[in-house]
Every structure is written in C-alpha cells, then in structure tokens.
C-alpha cells in the first residue's frame, strides 16, 4: 500500500536563516524521488518535515489523504496533538544517516517493539513479519545479535527492516549510505533498489549519483532552500539547465 | 643506510627461518616486589588490630547481635530504603521537569535543586523536626468545601517522619541531577528514531531513553545509595534510634565506647558491601548490548595472578 506525497508552498526558517523557501514537490505513489544538493541546501530538512520531525512555518504536506502535523479549518491550520502526529508517523518509515538502532535491544527487538507497542499488533504476526523482513535484507541469521556486533552496512539494513516492520505507505531515506565504509555502500543500495522495484514510494536524500540515475523516477536538485531543478534522471543529470546544478554535478560525478 | 638494513633483514634472518620465533613476555619483577611489600604491611596492620586488647573483640561479638543493635540496624535499613525510593522517585520527577519545554516547571525544578543542595542536611533535619513551631497545625482547606482534614503538627512530626522528610527532600535534589545527566547523555538520534516509529513521549522515555540512560545513572547512583546509608547516621542528633544511636545508648551506660563503635562499624561495612554487590549485578544487567562490561575486582586479581578464567557471556 503505497501513498503519494504532496508538498505545497513549504517554508521553514531556523531563526533568521530560511532553510526552505516555498518548496513544491509531488511524489506519485510507488515512485522514487531522489533529492540532490550541496550540504546546507535544505534537502534533509525537507525530508524531516515530511514526518514532522521539523515543524513547518507555512505550506502543507500531504501523505496520501493525511495532512501532516495539522488540522485544517477554513484557512487556518491547527497543529495536532502529539499523539495524533505519532499516529501519522506510523505510516511514514524513516531511515537515518547514522542508523539510530536501539543499542539495548537485539536486532529482532528493534523490529518488533514498535509494531507491538505502537500499532498494538499481535506478537505472533509481528514476529513472522520481522523474520521475513530480516530474510529480505539478508540478515535472517542475525535476529538475536546486538546492533553493535553488526557492520555499518548490516546495521543500516536492519534499520530499513525496522522501518518496514511498521508497514509504512512511504519511506524516507536521509543520506542512508553517507556514514558507511565504501565497500558497504553496495549492500544497502541493493536493498533500497529491490524496495523501489516492489513499488514503495520513496524519497531519498543521497550523494550516490549512480543509484539516482538507475532508480529515480524523479530527481530534485536543491540549493539555498529552493528546488533549482527537477525532472527525470536524463534531464537533470545529463542535461542540467542551471549553472548551480552543473557546478554541483561536476564536483560529485 | 637504515633502508638497506631493513631490506636486508629478510636475507639476514635466513639462517633462523627454519625455526619458528618464540615471543618471551617481559617478566614484571618490580610488580611482584611491590605486591609482596604491600601484603606485608597489610598483614602487619591486621595483626595490630586483632591483637590489640583495647578493641575488646569478645565484647564486640557479644553486642553484635544484641536486640538493641539489631533494632538500630533495622531502623537504618528502613531509613535508607525509604529515603532512596522516595528520593529517586522525586529526583526523576524533578529531572523530567527540568528537561521539559515548560519554563515554569524548569524554573521550579532548578530552584528546588538549588535550595535543597544549599542547606546542610543536619540543618534541614533540625528544621523539619521543629516545623511545628512554624506551622502548629497541618490542615487541608478546600475552596467552597471548607476544612476537610486537620491535625496538630506535633502528632505528625515524630523523629522518624522528620528524618524521612529531610533525607528524602535532600536526596531528591541530588538524584535529579544524576538522572538528568543520564538522560542528556542519550543522543538526539535515539529520540528521533523513536518518534519516527510512532512511539509517544512516555514510551520513548520509559522504553528507549531511560533503559540506556541507566548505564550512566547507575555508577553515581550507587555512590548515592552507599552515601545515603551512611548519611542516615545523622538522625541520631534528633534521638532517632538508628544503628549509631543504638550503640550510643549502650555505651553511655556501660562506657564500652570502642567495642560498641566497632559493632556499628562492622554493621555499616556489611550493609555497604551488600549494596556494592547489588550495584555490580544491576550494572551488568543494564550494560546489555554495550561492549565495555564492568569488571569485578576478582577478575583483575585473576588476571594479575595469571589464572585462566571463563569470561562471562554478554
């Protein structure tokens, strides 16, 4: 069950620093959107706004039919109570640059605790799903390992499985391979590639141009809090129109 | 020159390559000398204690399990347990207030900690014991309902309740800082990961942050627990019959001061030892999933003496 994402006119400032400036973005259900851009361009902030880890100052973000973080009455947006935002987040999976696995829980516990405690699903159902997901990310044997016993690539694959265990409608990836040793990047991208093929809606902030070219239905280039250029891999990567895009691509390609 | 020597090393070593090289560890003779000297001094000290007739060990043995002393031990245990449980519960509330985004709660928590750390426990003890002079009656007066309940303060404040009150309020201020430090030590990444999975604030705190924070909370908390057990001895100044006061009662009658102080000493050592062992076990539990496990003293001794040992499972 994939959902689409609709972002309209989103503004966000940290103090006097405007990090998102009327951003519009539409990600159709089942498609993959890759966000590129130099550091400080606002790409991670945009991603974090989608599950309300950052509060937006103006605009709307919709995942499926849900207006994220707010309730609309007329022309006013009322911020939702925390428990309602928590409920919205259960259908939005997120994978972090530094994995953020829970170190005091085994791999299996990392996967099952949230579905059991948050979605109140039965343990048997969740356990079955957790083992299936671990097999899918190639870690069926490591269910009872502690996170610290795993390599970075394995930890990130567990983190992906943990997010998927909630059966989300969309998946957000915040530089999922940036903290990994080069030889471990491939195994994580492989899992993400197969997830994209399965029809999951994905928004991926990354510097992996090769992955973007291969998997993205849509590539966004951001700089200075605005979307400078958007389009298919061919148009943005091979025939960029803006000088800023060209300059960025020449440094990473 | 050195470069040549290096490249030649392989061929020079040619005459010994048939024999595998054996590593001989450095012998630490100095270590053994110091160990022997220290042990000698320790034995001499033990000898002087055991053979000094002034300790009157037979009297110590006689009083060690006398009814008055045992009652005192029980009172000390009650005070310690009560003040720690209530103190740390209060400390947890204060820590959460201090970390909340409500500026009033932050200010109140800060003020509490500042005030109760500023006043010596002994002064607080006297103040609570004499609180009846300030407020002769304790009453619950509800608006519109009127007086619900009232009692003279002197019937509420006994030496025991004054002691518990002072110890708890004092302990809470210190416990709050220990718990706050532990919570702050957990990175924001853990909070965000929990939020992203839909955990609410309470679940995040109780299932993800606190269990991890316990690792950094426990060592200083263990200090507090042991410190608190000994601190309860101050209650003897308001004539509450704890361990110290119990032996004082006896030696004021019999003048056997040293043997009775030894009785108290032995009981305090025994009780703090039990707490130390408990701390070690609890720390092991909360160290799950973390590389560096605390090591027990006997493991160091085993290593030093070179005994082989089975390493504990994580």
TrEMBL record, chain A:
SUPFAM superfamilies membership: P-loop containing nucleoside triphosphate hydrolases (SSF52540)
> Can you say where in the cell this protein is located?
Cell inner membrane
CDD domains per the record?
ABC_HisP_GlnQ
Q: Keyword annotations for this protein?
A: Amino-acid transport, ATP-binding, Cell membrane, Membrane, Nucleotide-binding, Transport
Major localisation = membrane
Q: What GO terms fall under cellular component here? A: plasma membrane
Pinpoint the ABC transporter domain residues: 5-249
In terms of Gene3D superfamilies, this protein maps to: P-loop containing nucleotide triphosphate hydrolases
Molecular function GO terms recorded: ABC-type amino acid transporter activity; ATP binding; ATP hydrolysis activity
Annotated membrane topology: Peripheral membrane protein
Question: Which InterPro entries does this UniProt record tie to the protein?
Answer: AAA+_ATPase, ABC_ATPase_HisP-typ, ABC_transporter-like_ATP-bd, ABC_transporter-like_CS, MetN_ABC_transporter-like, P-loop_NTPase
- Family per record: Belongs to the ABC transporter superfamily.
Q: PANTHER family given for it? A: AMINO ACID IMPORT ATP-BINDING PROTEIN, L-CYSTINE IMPORT ATP-BINDING PROTEIN TCYN
Which named protein is this?
A: Ectoine/hydroxyectoine ABC transporter ATP-binding protein EhuA
Organism expressing this protein natively: Vreelandella nigrificans
């Amino acid at each position: 069950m994939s959902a689409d994402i609709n972002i309209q006119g989103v503004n966000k400032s940290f103090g006097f620093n405007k990090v998102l400036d009327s951003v519009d973005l539409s990600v159709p259900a089942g498609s993959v959107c890759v966000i590129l851009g130099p550091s400080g361009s606002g790409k991670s902030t945009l991603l974090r706004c989608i599950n309300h880890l950052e509060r937006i100052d103006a605009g709307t973000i919709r995942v499926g039919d849900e207006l994220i973080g707010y309730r609309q009455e007329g022309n006013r947006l009322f911020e939702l109570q925390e428990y309602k935002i928590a409920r919205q987040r259960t259908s939005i999976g997120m994978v972090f640059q530094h994995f953020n696995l829970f170190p005091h829980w085994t791999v299996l516990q990392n996967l099952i605790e949230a579905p059991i405690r948050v979605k109140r699903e039965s343990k048997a159902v969740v356990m079955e799903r957790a083992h299936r997901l671990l097999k899918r990310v190639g870690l069926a044997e490591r269910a009872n390992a502690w996170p610290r016993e795993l390599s970075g690539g394995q930890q990130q694959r567990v983190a992906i499985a943990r997010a998927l265990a909630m059966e989300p409608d969309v998946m957000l990836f915040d530089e999922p391979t940036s903290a990994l040793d080069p030889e471990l990047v491939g195994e994580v991208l492989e899992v993400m590639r197969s997830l994209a093929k399965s029809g999951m809606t994905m928004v991926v902030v990354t510097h992996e141009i090769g992955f973007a070219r291969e998997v993205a239905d849509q590539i966004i280039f951001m700089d200075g809090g605005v979307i400078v250029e958007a389009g298919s891999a061919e148009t943005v990567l091979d025939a960029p129109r803006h000088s800023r895009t060209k300059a960025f691509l020449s440094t990473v390609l | 020159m050195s470069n040549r020597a290096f490249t030649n090393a392989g061929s020079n070593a040619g005459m010994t390559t048939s024999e595998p090289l054996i590593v001989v560890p450095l012998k630490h003779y100095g270590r053994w000398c110091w160990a022997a000297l220290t042990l000698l001094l320790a034995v001499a000290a033990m000898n002087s204690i055991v053979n000094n007739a002034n300790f009157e060990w037979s009297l110590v043995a006689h009083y060690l399990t006398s009814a008055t002393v045992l009652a005192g031990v029980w009172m000390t245990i009650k005070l310690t347990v009560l003040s720690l449980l209530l103190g740390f519960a209060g400390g947890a509330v204060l820590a959460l207030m201090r970390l909340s985004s409500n500026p009033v709660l932050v200010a109140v928590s800060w003020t509490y900690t500042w005030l109760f750390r500023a006043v010596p426990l002994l002064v607080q003890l006297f103040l609570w014991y004499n609180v009846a002079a300030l407020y002769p009656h304790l009453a619950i007066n509800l608006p519109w309902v009127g007086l619900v309940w009232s009692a003279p303060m002197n019937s509420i404040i006994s030496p025991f309740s004054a002691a518990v009150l002072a110890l708890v309020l004092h302990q809470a201020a210190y416990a709050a800082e220990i718990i706050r430090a532990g919570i702050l030590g957990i990175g924001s990444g853990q909070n965000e990961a929990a939020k992203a999975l839909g955990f609410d604030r309470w679940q995040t705190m109780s299932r993800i942050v606190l269990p991890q924070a316990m690792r950094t909370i426990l060592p200083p908390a263990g200090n507090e627990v042991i410190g608190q057990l000994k601190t309860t001895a101050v209650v003897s100044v308001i004539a509450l019959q704890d361990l110290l006061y119990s032996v004082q009662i006896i030696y004021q009658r019999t003048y056997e001061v040293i043997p009775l102080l030894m009785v108290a000493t032995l009981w305090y050592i025994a009780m703090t030892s039990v707490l130390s062992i408990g701390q070690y076990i609890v720390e092991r539990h909360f160290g799950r999933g973390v590389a560096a496990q605390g090591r027990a003293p006997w493991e160091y001794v085993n290593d030093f003496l070179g005994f082989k040992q089975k390493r504990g499972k994580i």
